[in-house]
Amino acid sequence: IWTTVFGRRMADEALFQFLHYELMQYIYKSADSKETENGRNITKLENMGFRVGQGLIERLTKDTARFKDELDTMKFICKDFWTCVFKKQIDNLRTNHQGIYVLQDNKFRLLSQLSAGKQYLEHAPKYLAFSCGLVRGALSNLGVKSIVTAEVSVMPTILLQKI
Amino acid sequence: IWTTVFGRRMADEALFQFLHYELMQYIYKSADSKETENGRNITKLENMGFRVGQGLIERLTKDTARFKDELDTMKFICKDFWTCVFKKQIDNLRTNHQGIYVLQDNKFRLLSQLSAGKQYLEHAPKYLAFSCGLVRGALSNLGVKSIVTAEVSVMPTILLQKI
């Protein structure tokens, strides 16, 4: 029985990973692959993430009491929201207490398809854009306007910054 | 506690629904919306479903013993595979024992975004294509070549036919 449960959880994660991959590939294939187009594709992915984030957070917070402050909201994003999408929590949350938050995921699922190694780092932005949008959309629906950026230092660790 | 679990399950389903919707919209927006393009978009969605189905079934059957026959395979698709994607089983499976199977889902999730009513039936094919591909891809990876078609009679019931 343990095996089946494990298998299904892995497949649950996989569904999102595969769909995200198809979405990304399609956007990059259908548009020009010129350097100038890259920014536009990133924006498209980010916008899609934004809409999905908005929809998801609405369902997730349906029966949740209001958050008492921004830190409380960010904790919900790091725990419940992140788990819903990535089946794991954010590993580390830091803040300067002036509206800037840094979220660290040490094993970011969407990078698991990408091989480790510095030569692949240049491809990272297109793997991160959708998720930045997700967080921005979720926060927006909770009344928090934000700019969300992401960076990879050592794969598969990512740092999401919310300003 | 009950509320949270429920909320999360609903959000789990929602993630796939929202992503599928974005994918569909993007394909239809980026291509010409002419009548002649419709068939090509359906094919694109079907192919994406095919690849996702292939990937998913590989994860799902990792620790599963081989299936003893085609009927056994189809039962797995109706129960485990369908549940993985749609969080519910197929409601009814029929076969003529000559390679044709009819799978009936009485509450097909991807149609829940579409209002009931005959005037919307014409839009149904684009909501079904991805899922036909999913099943075809899963079966293909299990060594079963197939043609999978879908039809809606009364929403949100769908009939998937595997030949």
From TrEMBL, chains A, B:
Entries under SUPFAM superfamilies matching the protein: Ligand-binding domain in the NO signalling and Golgi transport (SSF111126)
One GO-annotated biological process of the protein: endoplasmic reticulum to Golgi vesicle-mediated transport
GO cellular component terms, semicolon-separated: cis-Golgi network; endoplasmic reticulum; trans-Golgi network; TRAPP complex
Signal peptide interval: none
A UniProt-annotated Pfam family: TRAPP
UniProt entry keywords in alphabetical sequence: Endoplasmic reticulum, Golgi apparatus, Neurogenesis
Primary localization class, coarse: endoplasmic reticulum
Compartments it resides in: Endoplasmic reticulum; Golgi apparatus, cis-Golgi network
Coiled-coil regions, chain positions: none
Function per UniProt: Component of a transport protein particle (TRAPP) complex that may function in specific stages of inter-organelle traffic. Specifically involved in the early development of neural circuitry, likely by controlling the frequency and amplitude of intracellular calcium transients implicated in the regulation of neuron differentiation and survival.
Similarity comment: family membership: Belongs to the TRAPP small subunits family. BET3 subfamily.
This protein's name: Trafficking protein particle complex subunit 6B
Name of the encoding gene: trappc6b
